[in-house]
Amino acid sequence: MKKLLLLITFLSLAAFTQAKNRKAKIITPYGTMIVKLYDQTPKHRDNFIKLTRHHFYDSTLFHRVIKNFMIQGGDPDSKHAKPGQELGNGDVGYTIPAEFELDLFHRKGALAAARDNRPDKASSGCQFYIVQGKVFTEQQLDTLEKTRLGGRKIPVDQRDVYMTEGGAPHLDQSYTVFGQVIKGMDVIDKIAAEKTDSRNRPLQDIPMKIRLKKKWLFF
User: Fold this and answer.
1) Cα gap 146→165, rounded to integer Å
2) Which of 158, 174, 169 is nearest to 134 (CA)?
3) What does the alpha-carbon distance between residue 176 and residue 109 come to, in Å, rounded to a whole number?
């Protein structure tokens, strides 16, 4: 009986550990990105894990690409979409409440949830984007604070990142960041460099599949 209880405890703890500090592989024709999912945004993290486990993202496209800004995907309507078909309106029938955290910001490689113009800033249940962004000067960040951030000050450590690595600071505290690319940053640049049509859809389809990286807890 004691051995059985220990086994149940072990399996429970292992499952619990797998729900936290998770990583995912976003596999594309241009290479693979490894993404860390943040525990500070559990609703977005768990939703992304759920969809990934059900292979929801397999064969969906990066359907919206804007160089020096971001690459967006996760629209279920993009699966087997016809050339030139307008994309970006597909969903799963629910939204996720915003989970803004001051230390999670739109640096290059940030994984964030797309959304429409809802006043509560709730996220799409499936669509996401990955930031490419650009590098800012100190003066550009000063101007951004006055013109687009309503006077909100960008923390000093985040300013340093925006002036070295780059990103999209105007999106901070408006769209939920729930992960970060930790390997395969060059894949973002390759996808962002693709030619697009007038709706920012790549002329050459860029499909993806997403898999969770398994992590087990051993004593």
Assistant:
1) 22
2) 169
3) 14
Q: Domain 21-81+93-211 in CATH: superfamily? A: Cyclophilin-like (2.40.100.10)
Rounded distance, CA 34 to CA 189, Å?
A: 15
pLDDT 10s digits, 10-56: 444 444 445 566 999 999 999 999 999 999 999 999 999 999 999 99
At residue 92, the 3 state secondary structure works out as coil
Neighbours of 152 (CB within 10 A): 12
Other C-beta atoms closer than 10 Å to the C-beta of 184 total 19
Tell me the two tokens of residue 80.
Answer: 């087997």
* pLDDT given at position 15: 46
- pLDDT of 206 strictly over 80: yes
In angstroms, the first-to-last Cα distance of the chain is 20
Report how far residue 6's alpha carbon sits from residue 29's, in angstroms, rounded to the nearest whole number. Answer: 44
Place of tokens 């030139």: 84
Mean pLDDT of the chain: 91
The pTM score is: 0.89
- Average pLDDT of the segment spanning 81-101: 96
Phi, psi dihedral angles at 122 (to 5 degrees): -65, 150
8 Å CB contact between 133 and 142: no
